[in-house]
Amino acid sequence: MKVSTPAVAVVLMLYFCPGRGSASDDGATRPMLNKLTFSYYNFSSGKQGADINVRHTFKSSTAWIGGYRETAGFGQARLGYEYDYHHDWLTFVPSAQAATRGFLGASVYGEAGRRFFGIGGFGRTNLRPYWNLGFDPNDYVEFGAGYRDSDGNTISTYHPRQPPRHRPDEHACIFPTSSPLRLALDTRLGPRARPW
User: Fold this and answer.
1) Does residue 97 share a domain with residue 65?
2) What pTM was computed for the model?
């Protein structure tokens, strides 16, 4: 993948523009509005890959642009947008993404409840090649439940169901904490052909 000088300039401008996470005069930390991530992958198959991604968080949404390239020749540029609606006991997060090689995808995630909450979601793609940097598959239906303590820490478990062409059944528990670290437990059960 060839990276152009204007693309590098845009990434650097977004990264260095005002509004990054920093301490204010009163000592409170403002949320990071821009995030630049570089990743390197060394796969057991002998291939290596590199990824660059820049994200910007607006008042109620997030947009990103990125690129991935591996030594076997696969490369892909991508962009996406996610809207975050939060009101009282309801969370609704639709997202859309597009990438070179003709990939298009969309997903919807939702939570309903306060301390104890239900989880539901689904995602669909046009099944074109896509380098998936996420924890979850792109074509799925998801159901689950969670608990949120008084400090805002959550624990949740969900069951994504994919068509037979995708990964096996998966159950995951994610334990975010108020620190920058989180613990995730992921279990996969068998390959099973399930009707979609």
Assistant:
1) no
2) 0.65
Q: Count how many domains the chain has.
A: 2
> pLDDT for 108-142, tens place per residue?
999 999 999 999 999 898 988 887 665 456 778 88
Is the Cβ–Cβ distance between 92 and 108 less than 8 Å? yes
List of residues 6+ apart from 59 with CB closer than 8 A: none
Domain region containing 11: 1-20+31-71
Residue 25 placed within a domain: no
Non-local CB neighbours of 181 within 8 Å, separated by 6+ positions: none
- 42 has which bridge partners? 48
Q: Are residues 92 and 64 in the same domain?
A: no
User: Whose structure tokens read 């990054």?
Assistant: 20
